[in-house]
């Protein structure tokens, strides 16, 4: 393990990003007629559905603007981010910066703005676009979208909430987890640093004091919105190992920003608990959903192996090693690396498969869809490339 060739691995991830993944999205996802991006792409990159899902639009804007800002000032990356940003600016929201869930190809709304994650990824996208272009208009959209997120965070679905009020009030882990990451993404454009500090403090409290449970050893996906207690029902028992591990590398980044070594160490400890719990001892890979009591689950896809779960877990383990030198984290990264390149990597066409069955066999040959877009694979390749260079 000590002889791992970090330099060679860094080149492997860099080449996969720059020579394989990015050309796939640049060449196949851009809608040159109406703007925005196609995310529903077959294995070979051909388009099989033209609907546009807003959080995937925001993610692709963010990805190409981020790479332009951090890797190289390539005009084709900026052009790609700009045309997607303009599509979102014109058609993505209701005028009050509530971003729709989906549009048709031309930009007409299909699904109401019930999903607050459309806002979070639009906010991140416009923040990076503002940094790339220096345009105040994009920064202003990011700020207004951030304000809407804060206004909606306690009742994110608003009038589109389908649960009956009062009987079993719950809140989800996903939102405070994403805001932990989003806060660092938009730091440069928020003038009120005290607001940003309060937001980070609140999210850290939510993740570590509300959703993390000592008796479970990790974060649960849903708790009572009244007192933060555990709830014994399907939703209250569900554990998502991928969410846990993604959140932990967000917390490690916050620990670096805050110069808080205890936060980093706690995140690493939780991450190790989670990956040991979530790893499939029989077939390898990480389960998608688990029940904290070991009961049968409502999600029929519970045992599938998903691209984003493994990419985010790899980032978490490598980041943990780079920050602490913990050899157990490095061993887990090596195991995840071997699993990903054996199972998710497509040997014939660019980009990675997204959905495997429990045994690690390809379940769906698509490269993009309603949930998989230009985000987790390229972001993960970039993060791991840079971490390996540091190592």
What proportion of the residues is helical, as a percent range?
40-55%
Strand order of the largest sheet: 3-4-5
Question: What letter string, H or E per element, gives the SSE order?
Answer: HEEEHHEEHHEHHEEEHEHHEEHHEEH
Find the count of extended strands (DSSP E, 2+ residues): 14
Low-confidence stretches: none
For the biggest sheet, the summary is: 3 strands, antiparallel
For the termini, the CA-CA separation is 13 Å
Strand content: 5-15%
Secondary-structure-derived class: mainly alpha
Please tally the helical runs, counting DSSP H or I stretches of 4 or more residues.
13
- Overall shape: it is globular
C-alpha-based Rg, rounded: 20 Å
Indicate the mean pLDDT. Answer: 96
What would you say this structure looks like, in words?
The mean pLDDT is 96. The chain is mostly helical. The longest helix has 23 residues, at 6-28. The strands form 6 sheets. The protein has a 3-stranded antiparallel β-sheet with strand order 3-4-5. It has a 3-stranded antiparallel β-sheet with strand order 12-13-14. The protein is built from 13 helices and 14 strands. Helix 10 crosses helix 11 (307-324). 54% of the residues lie in helices and 8% in strands. The radius of gyration is 20 Å and the shape is globular.
Topology of this protein?
Blueprint: H1 6-28, E1 40-41, E2 47-49, E3 52-53, H2 54-70, H3 75-91, E4 102-103, E5 109-111, H4 116-133, H5 136-152, E6 170-172, H6 174-185, H7 193-211, E7 212-213, E8 218-219, E9 222-224, H8 234-237, E10 238-239, H9 241-258, H10 261-278, E11 290-291, E12 305-306, H11 307-324, H12 327-343, E13 355-356, E14 362-364, H13 376-390
Antiparallel strand pairs: 1-2, 3-4, 4-5, 6-9, 7-8, 10-11, 12-13, 13-14
Helix pairs in contact: 1-13, 2-3, 2-4, 3-4, 4-5, 4-6, 6-7, 6-9, 9-10, 9-11, 10-11, 11-12, 11-13
